Amino acid sequence: IELRRPVGDPIVIDDLERLSFRVDRRAYTDDDLAAQEMTRIFDRCWLYVGHESEVPGPGSYVARDVGGRPVVMARGSDGVIRVFANSCTHRGALICSQPAGQARSFRCPYHDWTFSNQGDLVGVPIPDGYGPGFRKADFGLAQHRSDSYRGFVFVTFDPEQPRTLTEYLAGATEYLDLIDDQSEVGMEVIQGAQLHGARANWKLMMENSVDIYHFRALHKRYVSYMESLGSVPPRRRGGFGRALGLGHGANELPPAAARPLAYWTPMFGAEVRPRIEATAARFVDRFGAERAERITGTNRALLIFPNLMIIDAIAITIRKIDPVGAGRMAITSVALAPRDEDPDIRELRKSHYLTFLGPAGFATPDDIEIIESCQRGYLNRTVRYSDLSRGMNKEIPETTDELPAREFWRQWDRLMHGDDGHLDVAHRAEMQGAEPR
Ligand code: FES
Ligand code: FE
Prior knowledge:
Elements (H helix, E strand, L loop, with lengths): L11 E4 L4 E5 L1 H4 L1 H12 L3 E6 L8 E7 L2 E7 L5 E5 L14 E3 L2 E3 L6 E3 L4 E3 L19 E7 L2 E5 L8 H5 L2 H9 L6 E3 L4 E5 L3 H8 L5 H4 L1 H9 L11 E6 L2 E6 L19 H25 L1 E6 L3 E6 L1 E9 L5 E10 L4 H15 L6 H14 L7 E3 L15 H15 L7 H7 L6
Antiparallel strand pairs: 1-2, 2-21, 3-12, 4-5, 4-7, 5-6, 6-11, 8-9, 9-10, 11-12, 13-20, 14-20, 15-16, 16-17, 17-18, 18-19, 19-20
């Protein structure tokens, strides 16, 4: 594939005949490409904002950055979830500086303009200072187009985004269903987020999160620890990787030792076991044996393009990965769990979440260290390409193959070319060889 823009030479080389797939390492290091990713990918795609359980009742809100933009996700007094630009319509200050809370209104600290939790401007101080042309109705908070699927709330900053959220999620909906089906009363984000970062390009973390190839090599210490407990991590082969369309991908693995519900049974004392077995039996009643086994007995890692990972293994980790220029990223992790979870199982889940996928857990420090090592390795520009071709010769790729990463890169390549069928005017002109405006 010849990448016409933004640089002359191909970045992603996808050669089906030679069964080779290579990525130019400038995709991880080039500042211009990083800037173009913000407009061509993050300004266009549907991006994950948060989970509905984070704004459980009227007036609850969270404030965070999405695609480099500060936003507020608020449930209005009318019960509706909206996503607003966190920027005062007067002169731009953040109208909300708390990460989460409860508010009937947001008061901008600069000059005290006040907005309702439904986004309307409801008060300005000294209102007689304005002429008759000043209408409060013209100064409500900017509201972004948002939607949710099974409790996961997404936003798009592209008013022309042609796909509905469900269309955009494509095959990923199957996996979001498998996650949300884990509770009859709904899933919830466990309070508290882990915020950390890495001195590496954001795409390295996306690749890593859906890469099983590295597990036994890089996480040796975890593997030997589990073996010392007599609890065996997924040694046997099996499972499969999938490309889910539009850049999304997944891995499904056979049951590991540590798994919520059925596969945690050996880790509990006799008094808790019946409760776990009862939970597992309820799944069989609800879904039948086959789907119940898939929900409770299979680990999965889901990549939703561009920057969301849901790792449903050991515990459910929602990981949002944000670029900070070419060579840094910000990572936000939260744990998701059934709302009605047994307290003992919840404790075990939290401990697994923290001790495996947390920033100080068994796995994540290894992952951060190695992707920072890749980023440093790219400084030696002699080796120009990274190879992601494992599994291209197979009809049914295994989890250790690099299929989901290739799906990610193919969509990255399409969007960076502007080949997604919805170009803005400046970009279309640029693609036709005219000077961009
Ligand atoms: Fe918000 Fe002036 S900037 S009130
Ligand atoms: Fe890892």
